Amino acid sequence: MAKECDVAVIGAGTAGLAAERKARACGAATVLIDPEFSGTTCATVGCMPSKLLIAAAGVAHGVAGAGEFGIRASHSIDGAAVMQRVRRFRDEFAQGVRDQIADLPNGVARRGRARFTAPGELELDNGERIRAKAVVLATGSAPSLPGPFRDLGDLVLTNRDVFELEDLPESLGVIGAGPIGSELAQAFARLGVRVEVFDRGETLAGLPPESSAHLRRLLEREMALHLGVDPKVEALGSEVQVSIDGHSARFERLLVATGRPPQLDGLDLQAAGIRVEKGGMPHVDPQTLQVGTTAVFLVGDANGDRPLLHEASDEGAIAGHNAAHFPELSIARRKLPMAVTFTRPSAAVIGTIPDGRDDLVTGCADYADQGRARVEGRAGGLLRLHAQKATGRLVGADLCIPDGEHIAHLLAWTISRGTSVSDALNLPFYHPTTEEGIKPALRELCAKIDRVPAWDEDEGNPPGH
Predict the structure, then answer these.
(1) What is the CATH number of domain 3-143+261-325?
(2) So where are the chain's domains?
(3) Which InterPro entries does this chain map to (predicted)?
(4) Which residues pair with 225 in a beta bridge?
(5) In the beta sheet, which residues pair with residue 235?
(6) Peptide bond into 432 cis (omega under 30)
């Protein structure tokens, strides 16, 4: 006999755990299905192990640059110890998630791969059947490995296995200059690995061209970047050769970071009455997460809309609530979009970017001469703020600046509150901080929208005053 429940959640990642938790809090009888229950993508192969590697790279970079401050320091990098620490802390984070799963009420967790056999009816690969009033799909995403790279065998790495390296490679080719590729490429380069990055696109880390150009100039001090190219790869013994017009190089390993498409294969969505559109994706309402008019909800990386941890958590909670109350749906007010790439300087895209829109104006701040950044030997980068020309309200930003991940949060909070340019300029700015580097962009916006702030005493003062 099939197990009956109110809400079945497929996938025990960040989105799935949030969905199950919210549905159960709403009084629903829940089932959480996963083939492994190994922990979230963030804890196991994403956010946390990458930040552990970046942290080690930051320490190495700081020691290597100590001479700029008159400090003599020597250092050697123990690659095996670096990777061992990455895995040790990674495993602790993942175990924390598994402990959370172990604390679920009896009967909630079901191990297996699920597919639809009819609307509201699921079958696991172990033969178990589940009948649910509503289903939340939180199956996540998986690294893309295009055809030419599959023939390279163990020479190829993705974010799923790069952290399993026992030692740092001598050299690393990176295919893909998006957030994952850019972060890991710089981290390995700072740890003494010879790194080159190749990408068909012209920009880095998902940034608009203007801020991407600044980030490119800064990253090229540490590694070779080849953008707008079509790399060809082949295995030559124990190495991989990557070739583009006029250049070829051999690497000990090749990291492929060409995206993480949603994992929906094997679910038999058609059996659930779900219409799959062009590209293999169904239509999802971004405010309710409902798939079409069905009792199915699609969340997190699996819907491909905002593949970020905080978005996955929010979407899981929205879908869990709506699944528990189906067919009654609540429309959620989604948070302002914000994406951060943890290069150094860190990069971010927040809210709305003009992209040719004539109703928006832009103000810029160049961090090449920013006082605090110069003091700390971190000068360089660009901040762009965007506002509505008619109202003066801030609507977005893109940046690659020192402390960018923190300033991005301040800007996201300010933009979310509907703050005007002049009101933002009248907020307190402490000196000397990287935050006060925002002010030139705000002043430029004030001039463009003809709104003079009530008080801006520092206008015209040099950056180091």
Answers:
(1) 3.50.50.60
(2) 3-143+261-325, 147-256, 338-448
(3) FAD/NAD-bd_sf (IPR036188), FAD/NAD-binding_dom (IPR023753), FAD/NAD-linked_Rdtase_dimer_sf (IPR016156), Pyr_nucl-diS_OxRdtase_dimer (IPR004099)
(4) 197
(5) 240
(6) yes
H-state helical runs in 302-458: 309-325, 371-375, 404-416, 421-425, 439-448
- The pLDDT tens digits for 88-123 are 999 999 999 999 999 999 999 999 999 999 999 999
Mean pLDDT for the stretch of residues 321-335:
96
Q: How far is CA 381 from the centre of its chain?
A: 20
Query: How far apart are alpha carbons 222 and 376 in whole angstroms?
Result: 18
Q: Which residues contact 43 (CB under 8 A, 6 or more apart)?
A: 90, 93, 94, 96, 97
CATH of 147-256, one of 3.20.20.150, 3.40.50.970, 3.50.50.60, 3.40.50.80: 3.50.50.60
What CA–CA distances, in Å, run from 361 to 105, 322, 390, 453, 459?
53, 38, 10, 17, 20
pLDDT reported for residue 75 = 87
- Of 383, 417, 428, 423, which Cα lies nearest the Cα of 402? 383
Tokens of 233: 């790869």
pLDDT, tens only, 425-447: 999 999 999 999 999 999 999 99
**Class (C level, CATH) for 338-448:** alpha beta
Cis peptide before 327 (omega within 30 of 0): yes
CB atoms within 10 A of CB 288: 16
Coil/strand/helix, residue 181: helix
Q: What is the DSSP string of 30-47?
A: EEEEES-----HHHHHSH
Please list the residues that pair with 9 across neighbouring strands: 32, 136
The answer to whether residue 280 scores a pLDDT higher than 90 is no
Q: Do 3-143+261-325 and 147-256 fold alike per CATH?
A: yes
Residue among 169, 205, 204, 191 at smallest CA distance from 53: 191
> How far is the first Cα of the chain from the last one, in angstroms, to the nearest whole number?
76
pTM of the entire predicted model: 0.94
159-181 average pLDDT score: 97
The two beta strands, 109-111 and 30-34, are parallel
The whole-angstrom separation of Cα 43 and Cα 312 is 14
Name the helix (H) or strand (E) containing 351. strand 346-351
pLDDT at residue 463 in the model: 53
With a cut of 60, say whether residue 464 has pLDDT above it. Answer: no
CB 268 within 8 A of CB 114: no
Give pLDDT, residue 456: 63
The rounded distance, in Å, linking the Cα atoms of 65 and 26 is: 54
